[in-house]
Design brief:
- Four copies of one chain form a homotetramer.
- By secondary structure, chain A is of the alpha/beta class.
- Chain A has twelve helices and nine strands.
- In chain A, strands 1, 2, 3, 4, 5, 6, 7, 8 and 9 form a nine-stranded mixed beta sheet that branches.
- In chain A, helix 9 crosses helix 10.
- Chains in contact: A-B, A-C, A-D, B-C, B-D, C-D.
- At the B-C interface, helix 9, helix 10, strand 9 and helix 11 of B face helix 9, helix 10, strand 9 and helix 11 of C.
């Protein structure tokens, strides 16, 4: 088998298998407010093995209008994201948002910036006067990363979830993509949770319904391409085929990002935060959130 | 009773009672590497009521040499802090550092900056080759604040502590002082833990041996004076006595800080982080930490 | 004479002289979109000596609706500011925006954050296709502060102004107020330029029409109260009168700010930036700016 | 001619011409405190055309010990850099440091962070008591970038230089490299100044002795590899040769950086700042600078 560079997007795993139908995998496309939405549904174990991902729904929205900074692109994008999330969330009950990743590394700050834009209400629900009693109860945790806490981030999320017993967890994180043109302009939403290490039986790190007992919706934004992946992909576009292992060792530890990664990550992560807020509090508008956050 | 402005320092509570001996309270002074160290020991319930603080040891170190940026002041200060902490810590067993406060508010970022300077080892102890097996096991958590997480910070610390079962917790936070000259140049260490809300039976928020079952060492740095407190204190120095309630309402929500609070908080919080590291890993030096952190 | 604490606001200088009319000083009040606008006009040398400020117009807008985060408060505030600025600016010709102050000190970062929100066009005017040829030519400079550059900030602005020969300069800076309730919710606009050191003949530091030969509009936001000033002001509210010199020495170097100064400075400084943009490019809207900046 | 990917390092231009001697180019190597130092000397127009760079000295120091965080690596590196700079600087007279680049884009923040670590003295030299009269006079300017100021950065530097009339200018900036292993671990020092746009007659942007009348020493740190450059270079290592134009269009706007670019840029830029300080103030030590900056 040829070189299969790394991606966290089910859409890209499917693309790399060619255009033919795959057993156990369904694929749908639609449009919401001018944004293209694709959905890869892995229906069973056969599909799961074909795409190396757990069975479940993987929905991808491509926010090209946001990148072109079109009028009302932010509001439309946040609303589109909210409607996709609403489909996957239970109708009622408290929700825990987990902002994953390392805020000190720009392309890994998606979870942190989304968390800063989350409307947190758990502590307000019982406030006197009942002014907040119509809001859904939402809490947020930023577990940090292993290198700076000494603890697996999923351990921290699980510990907090056991305290506040949410009806669902929404986990936000940065992803790796295979194609540079998707960086900071795509969001993947899945109901399979987060399984770092490709889900190869590493239950210790798994953040999913299996280990938590409640649905775990993962929201991810691709912000980097592995440098070896990019080289292979550019080479392939040029008709060459490169040796995988030599590439890996030559490009190790390097990442490819857009030049203006700082502002691009800030923009799309805020949109993710607002999209989650609108999904959880359907009575609010973007300008309400501008005032409350 | 006259105006008793707010302070988190036991030393200042004692000062405000005059120079006479208080029943149930002992007071010691000494010098470490040119830094003045005071200790208020609240021995029993009588002392506790006199100073409105739980019984225990409250040690204050005044880092004047750091402010004057004297040669080797940082290293001496970190070592002095380490020796004071070592006295209060159990000799063995894993330690959980909790960086409290809100990093988005400069004077409240002490816990966050100290946490960034913590040497975290829990995930390395079992690394192959055993190169880290001589280090004490240390983890770190930053729970965030209620307003941005919806969860009491002590709840998050407790949840994590229940997972990793440390032998002790070190909680770092910003404090309020009554005297401006102590801001960003004083550290208080206590074995009584952290009891927001003055310990008046608010066990939900208490982070202490009572609720955790292991020693909780609190390390605090005063970074703000309440504006009403400062006005009262300046007025008193000028021989006037102001009406407490009118002051409170006039100065509500305002804080007094040094003009260069950003760099002062960064400097002393790094020193606190290094002091904790040296207490937990006595085989390391400041220049080792410079390389490892 | 009693204690006259420091302020940069002409409005407060006038308030401290009581409600009687002052020779050489006129005072007007009006309302724009629900925001209160006051104007102190110092007409001649007599008025100038009475208020210790150069002759000219000092317009103050109080942005209470912004603080209460009312709907459309940001857009209304930016538009109100734009209309006040338009009155003082020449109708045509390039404009140089100078973002003064020290971005590393939160309450002094007003000029920096406003500059980040300035729509800069000078380099685009001659772009091929002429798509930007309808925009007014705008450049921006951040001169830094003496302590970190070694050069007076006004020297840097003057050097740049001599290169690009603007028709007017807009200088944005943080101010000191005497009353805490004005912090981060008031903007003062004046056509007298900036005269650090109270204009006492220190022409080296003066940034004004005198030294530049073009109008200098200063836009200032009060973000701090001097601690001694606050103590005196709170004491006066309580009926006491404090000794000025003792206060000064006791409170030296301390400042009073709102607790959430970081977010408040960010909010009002962005509004100032947008207000300037709308004044200079009347064909644009706030949502245009959201897309362009 | 094959693919010649972009680099700002004279060393890499020479490498790409093979190991043979080039007319008009000399090459020297030595070692300072364990750091490898290479020097490419372009002696005349023939050498200049061969390497596409102006005639002059290009000195490269590889700071591998810093990356490995060896003991005293920072101090040794700063001293080595200082000795290299001292060779190129005039012995006396004021110096202007120019921190170039865009601090809002992490890999472009080298100039800004170096400037923050510059010891600025111009405003202190005439202080009463003469305590600073032994120090060399140093000023610093950060001109910003065209996109956020509307003005060429070299225009701002030139305007300030005309005011303070330095004996030399030191310009610090980020560079592009061709080889990933040099990122954030190499410093290039040259006496040819900075000529963005490859010096192809764009005198408007040139910051050099030609336009300023005083020596301009440029200090640069490679922090990015162009993505197309990296792909070509990895492909070449794997024995393939890619089509230049297709690569350029596929990888446009993307950059390759180390994953931990934020901390790596901070570390090496501080070292550059300290190296400049030690070159300009030979009576000071690194721990003096720790106290003064």
């Amino acid at each position: 088998m040829g070189f299969l560079p790394r991606t966290d997007l089910a859409l890209e795993e499917r693309e790399s298998r060619g255009s033919a139908d795959l057993e156990g995998v369904r694929f749908l496309e639609r449009d919401i407010s001018g944004y293209r939405v694709s959905e890869v549904i892995i229906e069973n174990e056969i599909g799961s093995q074909a795409l190396c991902k757990p069975a479940g729904r993987y929905i991808t929205i491509e926010l090209d209008r946001l990148i072109r900074r079109e009028d009302s692109a932010f509001e439309d994008g946040a609303r589109a994201l909210a409607s996709l999330l609403s489909d996957l969330l239970p109708e009622n009950g408290p929700v825990l948002i987990a902002g994953l990743g390392n805020p000190a590394i720009t392309p890994d700050a998606v979870g942190h910036i989304a968390a800063k834009n989350a409307l947190v209400t758990l502590h307000l629900i019982d406030a006197p006067g009942g002014v907040f009693s119509d809001l859904r109860s939402v809490a947020c945790v930023e577990p940090g990363v292993l290198g700076t806490t000494g603890i697996e981030s999923v351990e921290v999320v699980r510990a907090v979830a056991e305290k506040i017993r949410p009806a669902a967890v929404i986990a936000v994180d940065a992803l790796a993509s295979r194609r540079a043109e998707r960086l900071c302009r795509t969001v993947q939403i899945t109901d399979t949770g987060i399984v770092p290490g490709s889900g190869v039986g590493n239950a210790r790190k798994e953040l999913s319904a299996n280990t938590l007992g409640v649905p775990v919706i993962a929201v991810g934004v691709p912000t980097v391409v592995d440098a070896a992946t990019l080289a292979a992909s550019l080479a392939e576009d040029c008709g060459a085929r490169l040796d995988e292992d030599r590439l890996r060792s030559a490009g190790g530890g390097l990442i490819v990002t857009p030049r203006d990664i700082d502002s691009k990550v800030a923009d799309i992560s805020k949109l993710v935060g607002y999209g989650i807020d609108l999904a959880l509090q359907p009575s609010l508008s973007v300008s309400d959130l501008d005032m409350l956050i």
